[in-house]
Amino acid sequence: MSRTPFLPERLRRSGACAALVLCSLIFVAPDVDAHGGVVYDEDLCVLNIGFLMAHFTGYQPEASGAEEFCEDIPEVGESVFVIDYLHEFMKEMPVDFRIINDVEDFGQYAKWEDVVGLDDIERETIFYLAPEKRADGVLTASYRFEKAGGYIGIVTARHPTEDKRYNAVFFFQVGGSGYGYLPLFVLLIVGVQLAYLAGTGTLQRFVRVHVYPRVGRK
């Protein structure tokens, strides 16, 4: 007799826990979803290159004019990357920019260790801008993407007098972003709803009326 009220109560508690997890992920996800070396700061994309920082902006003049994007590129085609140095010291440093295919599906968790561990980075490189000092503190690169998919951007800054290099590695999607956390949100919402229906007895009644009779007929 005591088992009947216990099950809905437990399910109600499960539903409450799932709801709390969902709310937590909604608030945390925007920060987690920042790709690799790029973070969001007051609506700006900031590229972390070791202890150095730069403002990262992308454009697709042919597709969207002066509209800015941060990392992910909406359309296949001509794309322009602009990296504004936020440290004066970077103007004295040769900086290069490379784009490679994400052949190992590192995704947004790509790190420098992953890149250097590739068998042949030159083979996977689709664009390379050689190291150069830029007195104006702005690196600009243009490349026409021919196919949608995942890519990894790599920025390397070389110390002007010491044998030190600082790297930024960031994943980006061309031709539309991935689903991100949407599938997880959907699953959590469905789970919360099922737990609620089970807690009120609606789910059990539905199973008794619609599922058990069909199973019995088979």
Tell me what you see in this structure.
The chain contains 6 helices and 10 strands; from the N terminus they run αβββαβββααββββαα. It is an alpha+beta fold. The protein folds into 2 domains: 3-29 and 181-217; 37-174, Immunoglobulin-like (Sandwich), CATH 2.60.40.1220. Strands 1, 2, 3, 4, 5 and 8 form a 6-stranded antiparallel beta sheet that branches. It has a 4-stranded antiparallel beta sheet with strand order 7-6-9-10. A hairpin with a 2-residue loop joins strand 1 and strand 2. Residues 1-36 and 177-185 have low confidence and may be disordered.
Question: Could you outline the blueprint of secondary structure elements for this entry?
Answer:
Blueprint: H1 3-32, E1 38-41, E2 44-49, E3 52-59, H2 61-64, E4 68-69, E5 78-85, E6 95-101, H3 112-116, H4 121-124, E7 125-132, E8 138-144, E9 149-158, E10 165-174, H5 182-200, H6 202-217
Antiparallel strand pairs: 1-2, 2-3, 3-4, 3-5, 5-8, 6-7, 6-9, 9-10
Helix pairs in contact: 1-5
